[in-house]
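Subject: Sanity check before I submit

Could someone independently write out the structure tokens for this chain? I want to compare against mine line by line before I put it in a report. The sequence has 395 residues.
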Amino acid sequence: MPINLSGEKFLFIAYITGEWQTYHRRVMFEKMAKFTGEKITFLIINRPVDFIISPLRHYDKWIDRLECNGLDKIFSNLYLYTPKIYLHDQIALRLRPAVVLNGKTLKKQLSYIIKQINCENRKRIVWNMHPDMIDYLDIISSDIKVYDCYDEYCYSVEGKAREAVFEREKKLLKSVDITFTTSEQLRKNKSLFQPNTHYIQNATDYELLNRAMIPGIETLPQLKKIKRPIIGYLGAIKNVIDCGLLSYIASKNPYWSIVLIGPIQDKSIRKKLKQFSNVYFEGQQEYKNFPNILKGFDVAMIPFIINDYTKNINPNKMHEYMSAGCQIVSTSLPEVYNYKEFIKIASTKEEFELFINEYLKNPISYEQRKLQMQAAGKNSWNSRFENMFSLMLGQ
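---
Independent answer below. Compare away.
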């Protein structure tokens, strides 16, 4: 049921950190638009095109943007806009005049688009998702400024870059009205600079993913070609994955199929694991296919390294796996302990292997899977949004 907005109508402007078509939080915004109904119009600001980097890296997108005004209507209350700027915003961070020029250009475009979608008289919520986007915060006037923080970004870089990200984030936290974090440790960290900070876990499309337990649902065709048992990972393949752990598991268990499904963001992982004939990279899949993928996993894994970065994350795949009734083994991420009754948590690579073996020899019962899914159902997108909007609007 849409939240009570007391007759107010809002324009929700969100600056996203990745390309919309493959963006890991795309489902969140789609669900949010459906949840709130027509009282909130969503304007998602896609990654912009520029006149230097875009022609080299994203030529098709650049050409498409030159030939249209960049506005796409996804739902009746959800729009996607791809702006044009002069210099790539990550490069512009080092050149203040370029930031100012980009800002003026973006403000002009957004003012026009807001008029075009008939939202110029609505109250505005500006939603920021990364410290590097702090310069977008005040381009358009707003009534509520939000920082949605789901990673400890300063730990993703080193040296002076880390200091720069920390300072940008500190400024961002002091500039917004409210901050949401996806882990308790992030809440503690961010509340030092923004007292109005709230911990709300990641969520998932429970209604879609629990279809993995429906009798007769088809496994993804390409998984049918892979020998069982399948020890699967579903998510971005990036530098949080513990290659040493996966190498150990693959080498010690040649009759297991280690299957990784998702976009490859760190090519070195594939390079390190290609020596093993029982490791498979199956590429990125559409979200709608997730139940068919998880249906094919004998064990679902979260094989993350433990460091300052991962200690602050609440892995979305944990909620996805639980919603699908999967048997789950994870490394010892702090947020995973919230569901320790449903997830086997390993402190060593030997323990990780042992727990997989235990699941394969003694699978959990249907009743246990249902209890796990019920726990995941309490953390749906709708419950998350209801909490967030109540906090934002002071209800």
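---
OP: Matches mine. For the report I'm noting this point. The longest strand covers residues 10-15.
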